[in-house]
Amino acid sequence: MALYTIGDLHLSLGSDKPMDIFGEGWSNYVERIREGFSELGSEDVTVLCGDLSWGMSLEESMQDLTFIHELPGKKILMKGNHDYWWNTAAKMQRFFDEHGLDSLQILHNNCIFYGDIALCGTRGWFYELEEPGGHTEKMRSREAGRLETSLKAAGEREKLCFLHYPPLYTGYRCEEMLRLLQQYGVKKCCYGHLHGGTAHARAVQGERDGTDFSLVSADYLRFKPKKILE
């Protein structure tokens, strides 16, 4: 059994939004995702860091969710900024149960245990969301609250954190998220969202203030999940 992670699958099997229009890096990406997961076993666990389906509802995302379900191992789903199909945890779980999607779990306002390790996370916050004169501070605080809820649910266990948005980026820091990572002693944080060579080059990776950061967006990983624990 091993723990993996990857973000930003951007599937559109039930809708018309193929990612290969964004360049050769996304060419044949659905098959590359399938191939990337082919080395995983049925007991392996993969945290999916948001932006999973372009569907606008659970029903429209059905083909994408079924594709994810049929990939090897157990999958832990998180919300990204393009997951418009995302709903309440109760409604999503009911939908999964009704359609036999029993390899899918939801990470949202909770934590999930991998042995003695707690898997924590939330969507996060990024400077792209800043709106002059809007409710930016309130929404950023709400997202930080969701991360703290997840971290508190872990108790005294070792914690790994997964975000969709990068809490650190060249020229940017989300202080609310970084404070919580330090406060709760998070040793590793994985995030997605960033696409293309320019954004990848500006990603902050490696150890910062006691936390090791890793970019795990699918195009950066060449559509192969990153192993982070045996």
UniProtKB/TrEMBL annotation:
Cited Pfam families: Metallophos (PF00149)
Annotated Calcineurin-like phosphoesterase domain residues: 5-196
Protein name from the UniProt record: Ser/threonine protein phosphatase
GO terms for MF: hydrolase activity
Species for this entry: Vescimonas fastidiosa
Coiled-coil intervals, chain numbering: none
InterPro entries: Calcineurin-like_PHP (IPR004843), Metallo-depent_PP-like (IPR029052), Metallophosphoesterase_sf (IPR051158), Pesterase_CT488 (IPR014578)
SUPFAM superfamilies: Metallo-dependent phosphatases
Origin organism lineage: Bacteria, Bacillati, Bacillota, Clostridia, Eubacteriales
